[in-house]
């Protein structure tokens, strides 16, 4: 039986629960600031969620592939899982509740969360299978430094490059040239093509955490804490030259988010795996079907927004208006309560699936 690190499962499940929460407020008009993304530079707690998941993907790769050989059978499994993730993401981007059930081709968004998870998983797994930690460290450094040089120093059509949201931003420019109208915004996509490169580094940093967790060293939680603090400091220092930015997935953003991930994981590891405290079991159950629950939540939300129950009012809007909007509650609190209700539903579903031993591997 494979050794289980309880904290890794809890961290993964907690991250998925937070992803669902920040994606399903009662209304986007009223959302507490910590539950919104930063406008551009800087970050909020919400901006930590997706990089946390990519980080734990890397950590999980260590447990799943440490005894695997880099052969055709292993590559086939990795490729199939990658294609499944990308396919599910494209399905969500194309699906519509009305006949013929899929959007016009020109309206489909090609990049997306699941697509990025698939691509990052593919490259991180291949790299882990073929290289030792020293080479992986070199690749990570090369990605982060190379991305900074590309974004900040290589001229774009004769103009100096910028980190701002502008036409002479390399990430925005490449996305527009490759994807055209198939993007989240007219001028950029937060899961765009060029910014996927440093997101691979987020997963590679998670691999180092996985290597620490499977090692025989003592006081692993202290090492994780030290690594996390070191990454935070380095990330904030780099922020002076390459601003922390989720939309660009800047190199400083990679380090800061991986730093926080190590710190939080160190705490959970200490409480659960070291001290044996029964903590966060519901998130452990959620982590066992993480991708399935995320996909299902996105799919159902899409349906709720599409089904019209009254003129100009979707099923989502009707539920929110008639149940959660109360005169004695602020708009932000009403909106948050709706989101918490959605999360609670999927946590309950995760519990039922776990008890019935239903584990859907994507």
Automatic annotation (TrEMBL):
Pfam families: HGSNAT_cat. The keyword Transmembrane applies. The keyword Membrane applies. It comes from Muriicola soli. This is DUF1624 domain-containing protein. InterPro entries: HGSNAT_cat. Residues 4-219 form the Heparan-alpha-glucosaminide N-acetyltransferase catalytic domain. Signal peptide: none annotated. Keywords: Membrane, Transmembrane, Transmembrane helix. The chain crosses the membrane at residues 10-28, 48-65, 85-102, 108-128, 135-154, 193-215, 222-241, 247-270, 282-305, 336-354.
